[in-house]
Amino acid sequence: MTAGGAPVATPAPGRRGPTALTAGVRRWWRRGALGQRLRRLRVAWGSSLRLRVLAVTTVVGIVALVLISAYLSERVRDTLYEQRVDEALADAATRTGLVQQQFDASTASTPALVQTVANDIVRRTQSSGSGAVGTLLRRSPTETPVTSLITFTVGTSVDLSPDLRAAVRETGAQHWQAVELGPAGSDRPGIVVGSVVAPPVVGPYELYFVYSLEPEEATVVLIQQTLALAALVLLGLLAAMALYLTRQVLGPVQLAARTAERLASGHLDERMTTKGRDELALLGRSFNEMADSLQEQFERLAGLSVVQQQFVSDVSHELRTPLTTIRMASEMIYDARGDFDAVTRRSAELLHTQVDRFEALLADLLEISRFDAGAAILDVEHLDVRTVVRRAVDLAAPLAERTGSHLSVEQPEEACRADIDPRRVERVLRNLLANAIEHAEGRGIEVVVRADARAVAISVVDHGVGMTTRQSEQVFDRFWRGDPSRARTIGGTGLGLAIALEDARLHGGDLEAWGSPGVGATFRLTLPRRAGVRVVHSPGPLVREEVVPELPNQLLGPSPASVPDLAGTPEEAR
């Protein structure tokens, strides 16, 4: 019973309800051969414009030809039928007049003589070759018969309907009716035409002539067969024409699509073959001109990129020598700051800090230039990833304590060994931990290690300000910041996460980010267990289930501020 007292129907024990039955039918349909064929056909229909054009053209052609053939067949049949009926009525009227004239000219004075004369007249009329296949002479049942002997059937016999006989008797005029010749079910069409004649002595009689429509029916069948054959020929020609047109029109379009795919995959020298001066040739030439322009732009941008990379690399190397001198001078000044006044002492401390930042930025620029030039290489060792994780966490623990955050590690008990470059993996983890500490706002930070047969995943989870989906897509961009107005407590070069992403990809792995404002953020590093294997699935967690309202402008992205080295080398926070 429901709350309102209305009964609720429940399935009987052991029986499947409507939902379960529907689900079972759907599973059977999906698994069945017919369902699979229909799904393949639906996929082919949606992916092939040529198939749709051919199918629509063929279906429309079939429908049009069927309608036209049916209309023509109906018109021809009706015309032949009407013509044959008119001929039969005219012939029956002529022959009825001849029979009446012969009766009028007869000198028979007794019923027996009238019967003999009627027999001769009817037989001569039937054998006159006028087209009738049968002649019937019947006594009118309303008249008092003088004799019941005059009733003839010559040729084909048919069953006369009472309505036809009544109409002939009552009006005395000519009437006709469609009949079936021969036994029931023989399907031999015909018509019977009746009228009244008056033999001498015996009174009025009903005279009927039977005509066959089989020749007309044969003509209609022949015309229908001819129309069907013509329809098949026209349908074949229509399909061939549609195929030709689709090849002529869709062929260049498909070629343009394939060429565009090749261009998108990096083959910038791919071009379309053009012939003629029509619209499709104009399309091909315009496409080739666009491809030429794109290739020129890409080559120019690639050249500028190479120049830019070379410039950054050269400047970074050239700055190392003067930076070493500046470093030595700043160290001397910094060590002697106790002898200075307060203003000079503060300046010495700022100089020392900014030299550290400049050195960190220079090191990161050199590292980025190695990635851009493809010169970065891995120094692979088969190690337990848990050891690298623990070392990175221990280095970040003092910084976490200063900000009030607590670091915890969740990892499997068995070893998670993989082919990794420990220096690069540790650098990635230090960057992720510094990033989490910066944005955790004193809350806890978890490091979760997961592994399967093919990959090892390390997730750094914080419960701080979080970030939006768009920010999680941009967080690995160089020098990007989500909110430039946010004050930083650690600082960074703005390149740490970009370098971390390149380190992950250099291993054949990936580095992903997820966040939700007010919930926190998760960064997941996935590494293959074997060098040279590309990661396709990560065993570690990324998206969390907590849902809170959006809090805009709560997250900082990469900034030009500096992140202090957690282990003696320059790093960066988010």
Automatic annotation (TrEMBL):
Protein name listed in UniProt: Sensor histidine kinase MtrB
This protein's record includes keyword Nucleus: no
UniProt source species: Serinibacter arcticus
Cellular component, GO annotation: plasma membrane
Domain of life (superkingdom): Bacteria
A GO molecular function held by the record: ATP binding
Domain Histidine kinase: 314-531
Keyword annotations of the record: ATP-binding, Cell membrane, Kinase, Membrane, Nucleotide-binding, Phosphoprotein, Transferase, Transmembrane, Transmembrane helix, Two-component regulatory system
Cell compartments where the protein resides: Cell membrane
Domain HAMP stretches: 247-299
Catalytic activity: ATP + protein L-histidine = ADP + protein N-phospho-L-histidine
PANTHER family registered for this protein in UniProt: HYBRID SIGNAL TRANSDUCTION HISTIDINE KINASE C, TWO-COMPONENT HISTIDINE KINASE
Lineage: Bacteria, Bacillati, Actinomycetota, Actinomycetes, Micrococcales
Transmembrane annotation, as ranges: 49-72, 222-245
Segments of this protein annotated with the region Disordered: 553-574
